[in-house]
Amino acid sequence: MLSRRNALLCTTTLGLMAGSTPVLAASTETALDTVVVTGNRGQARTVADSPSPIDVISAAQLQATGKVGLKEVLSRLLPSFNLPAINGGGTSWSVRGVTMRGLSGDQVLVLVNGKRRHNTALINNLARIGTAAVPVNLDLIPVSAIDHIEVLRDGASAQYGSDAIAGVINIILKENDSGGSAETSFGRYGSGDGDTVHQTFNYGLALPNDGFANLSLDSKEQEPFDRTGSATGNLYGTAARPDARDQTVNRHGWNPSYGLGREKVTNTSYNLEMPLNEDLKFYSFSTFSYMETTKVTGNYRPNDIYSLSGVADTPYPDGIHAQRRNRTTDYQVAAGVKGDAGAWAYDLSSTYGQDHSVLNAANTLNPSLGPTSPTSFNLATQVFDQWTNNLDFNRNIEIGLPHPLQTSVGFEWRRERYRIEPGDYASYTPGDYVIPTGPYAGQTPLPGLASYNGTSPDDAGSMTRDNVASYLDLGLDLTDKWYVGAAARYEHYDQDIGSTWSGKFSTRYEILPGLALRGTVNNGFRAPSLAQTIYASSTFTSGGVVNGEQVSVPVKVLPVDSVEAQALGAEKLKPEKSLNYSAGFTFEPSPNYRLTTDFYQISIRDRIVPTSLLGGPAVSQILAANGLSPSLYAQYYTNAVDTRTRGVDVVNEWRQDLARYGQVRWSAAWNWNQTKIEKLQATPAKLASLGANYQLFDRRLQKDLTVATPSTKLILGNSWDIAAFKVNTTLTRFGSYVEADNNPINDRKFGAKWITDLDVAYALSKSLTVALGANNLFNVYPDKNGIKDWAGGYEYGSFSPFGLGGAYYYTRLAYNF
Predict the structure, then answer these.
(1) What distance in Å separates the CA atoms of residue 18 and residue 625, rounded to the nearest whole number?
(2) Which domains does the chain have, with CATH numbers?
(3) Rounded CA separation 539/550 (Å)
(4) CA–CA separation, 142 vs 272, rounded Å?
(5) pTM score of the predicted model
(6) Which residues 6+ apart lie within 8 Å of 693 measured at CB?
(7) How far is the C-alpha of 693 from the C-alpha of 715, rounded, in Å?
(8) pLDDT band at residue 248, thresholds of 50, 70 and 90?
(9) How far is Cα 486 from Cα 234, in angstroms, rounded to an integer?
(10) Do 784 and 800 form a contact (C-beta atoms < 8 A)?
(11) 550-570: pLDDT as tens digits
């Protein structure tokens, strides 16, 4: 329910926005006529002139959110962009999955300066939202380097290639050739934890021939926070075990993984351009990042025969809290030349990117090795490389009409490689320790670590894939009021994926001065990622609900071409295919007011998702026959479902000159989004023949795809400049969502919430600015109706789009020189 304070703020904001008549200033500083390049290869257009919906986010807007990671920033600024608080287990806590227009993060193409960005090496194998996705890690791009971001909310595979189903995020880097800035901020949650220090530096310098080089550095250190509540009762739930100690102790803190872990990130970048002569420019840009994340990902395990498999004299007499650590080195380097060759402008470039992630474990052991087991391990190394080469041409061609034909044509060759390297031998090997006493005396514990296993050589591997593509993009102003555009792209992949065609048609017609209708239709695709194709997980535990209690089971993700996966019905993955429609209008009666409304529908065939957890005697027999533990549950990736997503985006913004009281920029943005499953693939014959009533894509997975993110999101904001003050206020309403289970009785609905963000900056001088701010000013939490685990976690659920930490307060000091 909306609190009295939030209701007052909301009513005041809406009243001012709806009831005031904007005083339109003549200053160009108040203009909303922003020029964009994304989605318009032939000619730059304004936001309102674009035939496709597009958002532009400035560097000042990024700074005023108070957030220090780009995913968090975009979640606060874009109504169609969502970021769950806890996306699941595995490595999904390290690279949290995002959604845009209800689709997964890897169905959104990310560009930097118009060049394709590489994806992470970490597949979200345990994610609930965006499961099986391999997105770009946006947090590895320094925010201090960003001039602005252009977000195209429309399919664009015909223009940019695979992944551009939900849209395109184009990050434009700064080009300043002098001066710079330095900034430091410190923040803490109201509960006294989660301390975060963020420091940035940006500097521009001139190069010969009126060139520039812009350098940036971001550093972030975030301490963990935990929102585990109290939990008492039998340690093992309903199954009492009389020899387990302290069964009824208050277990608060036994599972401090219900929150965010420790994170250290250093991001650097450069962006440079230098003319070589009048017709030729050399350019290059790069980012380099190092990230360390640490999180307790395994439940507390008391030192007894049930939790540690009867291992006596362990290094952990008080039990263990296993930690999972990730060290990622990530970089992208792009270089090219652009110039003119006759009537054609050309751009020749090469871009190489790599994400290298090393997974480690600490504070754990391999029970099958007994008391002498190591306590820290390398689990695996996962690496993704992408090398992209482009040659693009564009020109205007006179065809006898009042306006020339804007013509763009280009070619691309891309090579991708994904590899998994095995972990330490002790992280997965079966030992020969024999339990000396107790009910398991004479037995050897199962191999692998307490909580999860390392990657064995059998699960390691690598794969390389080549792609070639060509495109043609045409745009024509048939009259001063009517624009039409058409694009076509051909792509060919090796490894039997084959060839695909994508097309796009777009149009815009101005029916009255400032009022225009626009629409697009396009088809697209997303090729299966290499990680989805060859990924074989180490054993992990996946949570679920049984008889109203959170439980965990051991699961292994199988490569689709493995013998055991094919025995369970796995088939070669196919590309996802999409068909997008968009229709809307723009209203811009003055340079200081703009309203855009766009309706859309996105149909996707053959979406790649994980199967249900497959277990039981028949599955156990297949796993055992192929050298795997019969106690495991199996899972693999498959083209299991067709979906249809419908929605609407409304963006309303204007600037108001208040004379002696400064200037205000008002905004109101709203998204409604709904995904439905149109078709479920039948259970494969091989799986059905095993005799059990298996379901390929179960109820929980279906609900995670359709109702796990809010169907509505409203963002009301204003930015007020008055004298030396700059005040930014944002009020966001996140709609309701559901955390579902295979048993409907365990479904949990979390209601809509209003979140208030406030940032107040004061210029002490022309160069020095101090700011105070708060995210979630009034300390709002999700509904407290989640199903707790045995240690007191998850009472707020996992999927909250505004986080689980409560109020976060910060201060910022910025110096411009």
Answers:
(1) 69
(2) 4-235+248-264+280-816 (2.40.170.20)
(3) 19
(4) 16
(5) 0.91
(6) none
(7) 45
(8) very low
(9) 66
(10) no
(11) 556 678 888 898 999 999 999
